[in-house]
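Below is a complete specimen:
___
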Amino acid sequence: MLDITLLRKDLDAVVARLATRKNPQPFLDVERFRTLESERKRLQTGVEELQARRNALSKQVGQLKSKGQDASEPMAEVGRIAGQLSEGAASLELIQAELNDVLMGLPNLPHASVPKGADEAANQQVRINGSKPSFTFKPKEHFELGEGLGMMDFETAAKVSGARFVFLKGQLARLERALAQFMLNTHTA
């Protein structure tokens, strides 16, 4: 999730960086964000002003009571302010929840060095480590091997949880479990 202060400080730069992912960028409704943010500022300022007024009145009540004078009028106003404060805090909480929903929908910003492009075809090759092996046969992809051995089931997984999922079976499932356990043990020991 992006830090909201980044959007508050430099919204145009965030939108420009999001546009490098896809142009025009579909991730952030800028007008909705600006509307929510201005409403949040207005509500927060109002709540803070009410708190300051309540504190001043509470101090006045204390001074009047210490002098033995009637403090019913400032006390009644403090009661009215308390109701307004609870309404303002509830509204502020709703606005904040909407802002969090907006932030949760935003992807991470791409690094400035990432080339602009709609898909991976725009990527640039930075370096190659080692050399590609050559085989006397046509090598199979991992999923071809797994399906051929009956250890990977894409069709059932697609029915259960959607595309790009796989069920692992038998020794392959045990191997994945062992690797996960090994990494957990390595990082927690």
Q: What stands out?
A: The chain has seven helices and two strands.
